[in-house]
Amino acid sequence: MKLRSVLIATAVALPLLALFLRGLGMDPRYIPPAIPGQPAPPFELERMAYDPEAEPSEPTSVRLDDYLGHVVVVNFWASWCIPCRQEHPALVAAAERYRDQGVVFFGILYQDQVRNARRWLAEMGGEAYPTLLDPGSRTAIDYGLTGVPETVIIDRDGIVSYKRNGVVTLDLLVREIEAALARSEEAA
Amino acid sequence: MISTLGFGTLAIAFALSIYGIIAVAVGLRRRRPEFVRSAEMVAYVNFGLLTLANLAMVYALVTHDFSVSYVAQVGSRSTPLFFTVISLWSALEGSILFWGWVLAAYTAAAVYLHRDRPGPLVPCANATLLVIGAFFYMLLIGPANPFGRVWPVPLDGPGPNPLLQNHLLMAVHPPLLYLGYVGMSVPFAFAVGALLSGELDDGWIRMTRRWTIAAWSFLSLAIVAGMWWAYEVLGWGGYWGWDPVENASFMPWLTATAFLHSVMVQERRDMLKVWNLGLIVSTFLLTILGTFLTRSGIVSSVHAFAQGTIGYYFLGFIAIGLIASLALLAGRGEALRSEGALDAVASRETVFLVNNLLLTAFTFTVLLGTLFPIVAEAVRGVKVSVGAPFFNRMTVPLCVALLFLIGVGPALPWRRATADQLRRGLVPPAAAAVLVAGLSVVFGVRAFYTVLAFAFGAFALVANVNEFVTGVRARRRAHGEGVLTALARLVRSNPRRYGGYTAHLGVIAMAIGIAASSTFKEERQATLRVGERLAVPGGFELRFDELWAAEEPRRFVVGADVTVFREGREAGQLAPRLNYYRGTDQPLTTPAVRSRPKQDLYVTLMAFDERDGSSATFLVLVEPLVIWIWIGGGIIGLGAVIALLPRRRRRDATLGPASARFATSGAGEVAG
Amino acid sequence: MRLGIIVLALLVFGAPASAESRAGTAGARIVAVPEAAMQGGEAQAQGAQVVTPSAAELELEQRTREVASQLRCPVCQGVSIEDSPTDLARDMRNVIRDQLAAGRSPEEVKAYFISKYGEWVLLEPEPRGFNLAVYVLPILALAGGTGLVAASVRRWVRQGNEEPQP
């Protein structure tokens, strides 16, 4: 084989091979979130009664608009979702840590049944923050849900500052909540 | 023990392949025929080794030997024996092991059948096949090792993917696909052998003609089997989604089809040599690309196997294959150029050239669409999707044009078509086309391409059937034979031609089935209470009778009994089901399909009332002419079988002197 | 005999066209009986046990299907919302249906999904900017190839006629 032929062949083949090489480094299944930067879609959802026996003392429905001025963290989850188990302690810890600074946490149940959710929460140590019900997944779709778990952080002005399609860690939550708090303070 | 045995045989096969490649190189360069002979032995020994490795794996699967890593991955005590055996190819490592066996078998057969042919062509082809083999055996002892050891030994395994246990066609589709994919390695190897040895006439084409037809037919059947499986299992009544891996099996089929036709021009006019070499090289590289796409995780697909580093290995192999092939072609440029000459524009040669063009453009379009998401993300950083709407929009015109060509090709003779021949060949099909187009519009068909599809389908049908009719008529006039005898003898006198026409008929049937079922599909979805009926177009009514459940070793099944009424009278029972496999929360549907020549009635159980089973949601589809897609696939297979038949010694002088070439090339084909 | 072939072709191709497309417009129709309607006993209100949809429902379903076929199911692999059996796809179809029923145009509904999921959710890339390449290149290739084939055929026929006939 003449060297010249090999060089021509390599030059012709190179773009295609480079493309494949680049492609191997990318993950086709990961869809980057589209809503960060947009105003958070409003919702008004029924709050799940964790203890069916107890009297419903708090408001039975939750409206996002009522929390303007607070940093809000919304976590979409389901009892059949295994990674949700992994991340739940991180969410609980973050909720504890930032409660004093007025950061509000909500869990939105996705494609699941109330009795399963209650049992799951009981296994995980009780309800650390309110669980909201989303029949028909309207809110989930409004937030561009591609699967569970997904976590959305909304800053004090009601803008989506961060969305994670996948599991969150405590470090990640801390970093993004701090960023949301800082951003709102700058504006204030 | 199985692990050691399996791994050992594969390691030896790899080492022997390396030896064989070197032996051919040294043997040819230094004129030492014993080295070349020893490389032949390598081919035979490797076949034995790979057979042993595959049998060892099947044995491990059947005896549930979970100390073997692949068995631990896909085996399960609760899987029925049949599905346990076919789980050999249900996951990545096993599928490559099976691929290795098919490759070793083809290599041994190719070497054996051509063992007496002198010259460097066959040894070079052998060396090429050994290079391909070395790559796959290397994968098997490296990143895709199915014989790894598992410790501690688990008691049971997860079983194969439920999607692969749901239907018998899953037993058939992968082996057919591999037989097709790997089969293309043989003509490719001979093409490379021709380029390396300098024997650039059509010897390599004639030697591998049968292989190419066989591999092509396996690939065709594999694609149709895959379509049929998707239709019967996935629940939405579709059979082709332009999924990247579907495209990966379709693209080499397109280039192989172009190749099968284009080599006829080379044989007659000594033209298109570079083009034909390019087509077979593309076919082979596209088969490797297909494997790469499935196994690298580079595109998201229903077919995708696990990811990992194996993508890089395939990329390396593609790089070497692509660069080496291009370099060989560039290097032999002078020898391959030939002064082409045609007798007339109106000739079968021209039709084949247009055929090449359309099929190549088709392949390019599908390739671009499949890879574009990667390109767009690399360039723009944004993810885009290229799905069914794009592919349908861009390829339907090409399909319709090809359908037209299927009618023109047989109608035009080689070399030059006189005005009289044009008239006799094209006017009756054209009349049929116009008539069918008119009828379609009269009966309410408005979609432009559907009318064209029907019209050109009629055109091609009449043209191809006409070939049989005129041939039979000529024989009857000459010999007074009965119709069936004349037909049989006609086909046997030129199996390649009439096998080809038969395959055309199969393609036409598929095209019509696809056009009708996609354009006239009727869909109804409703939630029914027990006893309620749903009215569906076509005069059907379905009555939901009962919801039932059954426990099976590996799954929990919920089914609905549905009675079908046609024009008010009972016409059968259907039982669509939902299968809940252990470990997955989304159930797999088994739709119930009532297939008739005129239409399929397709019922999927979507949901049911979990409390008391008093209501259920059904999706009902009425799809006309779907069964002709599968029948068409079978006819294509039949055509390929006919084309592979040896030519019957002709005892009469009915055929003219122009066919003398056919006779000589036929005799040389006996050895394959 | 030729007439027979033509009649045969007519029968094969004429039959399905006649039986299946009486109403005229080619294309699939769907009826999904909305769950709310089922709960409300629409079927019971009809008295009979046969479920049949109304013309308005048919039309809405047709439009829903058209939009849903162009959007990609986020939890599946390359399947449209229309074809996907998953619950999320079903819910998304409901969203489409409600938005269409509320008077939004198909473009607006698609824009809504793009704002939530990104360009990725469209099954066919918008023919804008770089995306044009995937539409234009195949056409260019075909056009270029056709020119090449035509020129080659002409050259080869000329050469064939210049050669001395055997």
Description:
The complex is a heterotrimer of chains A (188), B (672) and C (166). Chain A has 188 residues and is α/β, with parallel strands linked by helices. Chain A contains five helices and seven strands; from the N terminus they run H-E-E-E-H-E-H-E-H-E-E-H. Chain A has helices spanning 3-24, 82-98, 114-123, 138-142, 170-187, and strands at 44-47, 61-63, 72-77, 104-109, 131-133, 150-154, 160-165. In chain A, strands 2-1-5-4-3-6-7 form a seven-stranded mixed β-sheet, with helices on one face. In chain A, helix 3 (114-123) links the parallel strand 4 and strand 5 (131-133). Chain A is elongated and about 85 Å long. Chain A starts with a helix and ends with a helix. By secondary structure, chain B is α+β, with helices and mostly antiparallel strands. Among the domains of chain B are: 1-159; 161-243 and 269-339, no CATH class; 522-627, Tick-borne Encephalitis virus Glycoprotein, domain 1, CATH 2.60.98. Chain B is built from 21 helices and ten strands. In chain B, helix 5 (92-113) packs across helix 7 (169-183) and helix 8 (185-197) runs antiparallel to helix 9 (203-233). Chain B starts with a helix and ends in a 5-residue tail after the last helix. In chain B, 56% of the residues are buried. Mean pLDDT of chain B is 89; it is low at 652-672. Chain C has 166 residues and is mostly helical. Chain C folds into two domains: 27-39 and 51-124, Cytochrome C biogenesis protein (Helicase, Ruva Protein, domain 3), CATH 1.10.8; 126-166. Chain C is 61% helix and 1% strand. Chain C has helices at residues 2-20, 35-39, 42-46, 55-68, 87-101, 106-117, 132-162, and one strand at 50-51. Mean pLDDT of chain C is 74; it is low at 1-48. The interface between B and C is large, with 100 and 80 residues. Strand 2 (533-536) of chain B pairs parallel with strand 1 of chain C.
